[in-house]
Amino acid sequence: MSQRPTLLKLLELSARRPQEAMQTVKAMQLSSPVAWQVFALVLVIELIFAHILGLLLGPVETPEGALGPALALNPVLLGAIQGCLLILMVFGIHWVGRAFGGTGRLEDAILLMALLQFALIVLQAFEILLIVIVPALAAGVLLFNIFAFFYLLTSFTTALHGFTRPPLVFLGILLTGLGAIFALSILLAIIGVTIPGTPPNV
């Protein structure tokens, strides 16, 4: 029986050969309950780091009626919203990938998101360190985080579903994401949620 990879090994593979990291996760054949438990644990850790980062950055001015301050003061609400968004991403990766001929399991899509978020947590920890030591470099790290997110998500999704053309996978992620944002904006407008930067209805 082969030994399961350590978390540090998965992080190393994610940085150097992300598709191999996802193949390693798939080979573990974890059950759905275990996958969801891993997902929940990573979400809690991510919220803790996000809270620390918010304390270091200090309060940010937001338009009156915006959701930002309410979320910052209510970590449970923030966690619920973020968890729902990540779950939607999990099912989106699974369903859209399968619709285009992918072969990935839902359990592996859950683990994909958990591994992706944990890798971003490591980058977030590095970002916190930079903000403390050299605040001027924080913006550069934020840009790198955006690049890393799309690079890892594309690589993981390619390996998850057995695709062979990462550029097309990246394009599919962008189009799916834009469609989801458009649908979400319509839903928020219907229920009357204020989006920062938009004028109120008169």
From TrEMBL:
Name the InterPro entries on file. Answer: Yip1_dom
Q: Where is the signal peptide?
A: none
Q: What is its main location?
A: membrane
Boundaries of every Yip1 domain copy: 16-185
Identify its membrane topology class: Multi-pass membrane protein
A Pfam cross-reference name: Yip1
Q: What are the transmembrane regions?
A: 34-56, 76-97, 109-126, 132-156, 168-195
Entry keyword set: Membrane, Transmembrane, Transmembrane helix
Q: Is Signal among the key words of this record? A: no
Localization, per the record, is: Membrane
| GO CC field | membrane
Q: What is this protein called?
A: Yip1 domain-containing protein
Q: Which organism is it from?
A: Vannielia litorea
